[in-house]
């Protein structure tokens, strides 16, 4: 396959993907990020803080601040936008068509990598276009320097995005990582990469933080301002007083730093091509051979036990989906709610391995013996994230939406699904609840109750609206991470304490948000049911 055909494949895939709502939503988030990276002079929120100072809003400072913020956001969030390229080819049958052509596996993987990178680079491009607008809007410097604005994006933002694009290809070719497990794993990997990439000894120069920070400290020293090397902070933080200013005209990347940037792309290419060792490129022959080998193994096992192997099984409907008999449909509202709830609980727990339950039990036991009752609540309420993401999505993902759409009272089934999520959330977080009740920590109990209703409500609303499990997984991981890191405004669990009481929103406010989310899910489901 020649280079022109490869580029055409990547561009065609890129054009298809930029039409999706998720792409537009991520672009809007990128624009909002640019505004956060360049806050007003009186703001108490900042992304880039150098010992209580920030640079005057020149092209160099704004370009660097938005480029670093974009590298952090797009490395984590951009992965979830681009990671379904191979899976979409498999679902739509395009992969089968490509398997019948002369397209080689390395060429296919390289095309998907280039497409991923183009999507992420276009998002970085929106940030770069927003940067000069923010400079003019803040009004501290009207001299726009295109080079000072764009160089940080080229050397700080694009190299990590190449690794993100390659990781998305790799994750889609590994069976375990193709599922929701991959979403959770990537969140942890990206968080670790963020922290490592900002350190003084970051591999390959990381995000370029050290180079920019060294240049800023030199400029501040020349202006009579003394700061320590560890006073450089990158990330959304709140400060007691608005930051003071100093003049910084940017930094000039040296040869060693630029060499590290090139190695980023080399490593990304190697990572994207690595799956060629095992990826079958949708070749039906490989699947048939695998199926034949499995059938022969099953027949041999049956003969060894003196019995024929079992016949080929038909696609299975998850347990609980068929729990509504025809007589129940005729009875309509007379159908007992508890039977619906029992069926939804079976659906929610379907296919969960015993190891998952053992780990959940271990977390529960640990919750009874830890000194602080809320210490393990974040662990207890992150472990079931993949199960919560099933709420509102399984009927679509299993192709049963049309069948269940004929059920006479869709609102009752949705409420049963939500109640199953609440029960599951309560069970996984029971240890902190008991500990707080014994200690008469009633504000903590209230916060726990609010969180127990909010989590399944959020999962159900996003699942019903978006009809995919990935959106909740991403949104919840971000909210959970902020709460664990002490951002009280989003603390739905009551783990951020002030004077011994939860410092976040009141339990009533959290419960009200949960009810609004359930109402939104019910409205969407009812509207879809009415248009059938």
TrEMBL record:
<keyword id="KW-0472">Membrane</keyword>
<feature type="transmembrane region" description="Helical">
    <location>
        <begin position="446"/>
        <end position="465"/>
    </location>
</feature>
<feature type="transmembrane region" description="Helical">
    <location>
        <begin position="21"/>
        <end position="41"/>
    </location>
</feature>
<protein>
    <recommendedName>
        <fullName>ABC transporter permease</fullName>
    </recommendedName>
</protein>
<feature type="transmembrane region" description="Helical">
    <location>
        <begin position="149"/>
        <end position="171"/>
    </location>
</feature>
<feature type="transmembrane region" description="Helical">
    <location>
        <begin position="474"/>
        <end position="495"/>
    </location>
</feature>
<keyword id="KW-0812">Transmembrane</keyword>
<feature type="transmembrane region" description="Helical">
    <location>
        <begin position="256"/>
        <end position="279"/>
    </location>
</feature>
<keyword id="KW-1133">Transmembrane helix</keyword>
<feature type="transmembrane region" description="Helical">
    <location>
        <begin position="61"/>
        <end position="82"/>
    </location>
</feature>
<feature type="transmembrane region" description="Helical">
    <location>
        <begin position="117"/>
        <end position="137"/>
    </location>
</feature>
<feature type="transmembrane region" description="Helical">
    <location>
        <begin position="507"/>
        <end position="524"/>
    </location>
</feature>
<feature type="transmembrane region" description="Helical">
    <location>
        <begin position="414"/>
        <end position="434"/>
    </location>
</feature>
